[in-house]
Design a protein that fits this description.
Strand order of the largest sheet: 1-2-3
Strand content: 5-15%
Order of helices and strands: HEHHEHEHHHH
Bound molecules: nickel (II) ion
Distance between the termini: 20 Å
Structural class: mainly alpha
CATH topology: Rossmann fold
Helix content: 40-55%
Shape: globular
CATH class: Alpha Beta
Number of strands: 3
């Protein structure tokens, strides 16, 4: 079920059988010379939509902006400050909690969101603790790429060339979703360095074309189809575990 295409009566009925919801979250940021700026939102959204087609799990609208300050030297990248993202996540959770949702599973496409989401969850739990209440809310953030099936496919097709940003894995999935927009480019060097970064200027200096440790050129829509299937199964298991 997609929240966006449901009525309030359907949502009320859903809440009688489940109080869990999946909320896809990504970012709007550069993904190297071949990757879509929307990659991190496109991937978890597709996995969540597939799950929604096959089950009766409620899926909320995708959050397309995230914490991407380190990408701001590249045109088209947009960031929310950590404090903005924390405030937004709290407002979304509290809004849905008001109607009876208790289990919030954020299906993530962007590593840069994790710290802020965990801080938002801590804020919510802190408010209950400081009021000497027991919170009924359970919050979790899981990357679509974290499960065993996706990891095995990444290892099989890309190995060490998967890297950590603009990975052929995420590009493959996004090309599967949008074959009409898939791109190619010469990767020079084939595999750029892997490492850490601070702000946007530091990032651009160290990773001039935007990639970190990844050979984006290995991405194909065909592998993306397999990754999507693996991710749907991984997330299904992980969500059921979260609910129980
Ligand atoms: Ni990404």
């Amino acid at each position: 079920m997609l929240l966006q295409l449901s009525t309030w009566q359907e949502t009320e009925a859903y809440l009688k059988q489940s109080t869990g919801i999946i909320i896809p979250i990504g970012s709007t940021e550069q993904h190297g010379p071949m990757g879509f700026i929307g990659t991190d939102a496109i991937c978890p959204q597709r996995v969540a939509e597939e799950l929604s087609n096959r089950t009766d799990i409620m899926v909320a609208p995708t959050l397309h902006y995230g914490m991407s300050q380190h990408h701001l030297e590249f045109p088209g990248s947009v960031t929310l400050r950590p404090t903005t993202l924390i405030a937004m996540i709290k407002d979304i959770i509290y809004s849905l909690a008001r109607h009876g949702f208790t289990h919030f599973y954020f299906l993530n496409g962007h590593g840069g969101n994790v710290d802020s989401l965990k801080a938002a969850f801590s804020e919510i739990y802190s408010e209950a603790s400081l009021n000497a209440e027991s919170s009924p809310l359970h919050c979790s953030i899981v990357g679509w790429y974290e499960g065993k099936r996706v990891s095995a496919l990444e290892e099989k097709y890309f190995g060490d060339a998967n890297g950590s940003h603009a990975t052929p894995s995420e590009l493959s999935l996004s090309f599967y979703v949008h074959p009409e927009a898939a791109k190619s480019a010469k990767m020079d060097p084939e595999i750029p360095p892997e490492g850490d970064f601070r702000d946007a200027a530091d990032y651009r200096k160290q990773y001039p074309d935007g990639r970190i440790g990844s050979n984006s050129g290995l991405a194909t829509a065909e592998i993306g189809a397999e990754l999507c299937e693996g991710a749907v199964e991984d997330v299904m298991e992980s969500y059921q575990e979260f609910l129980s």
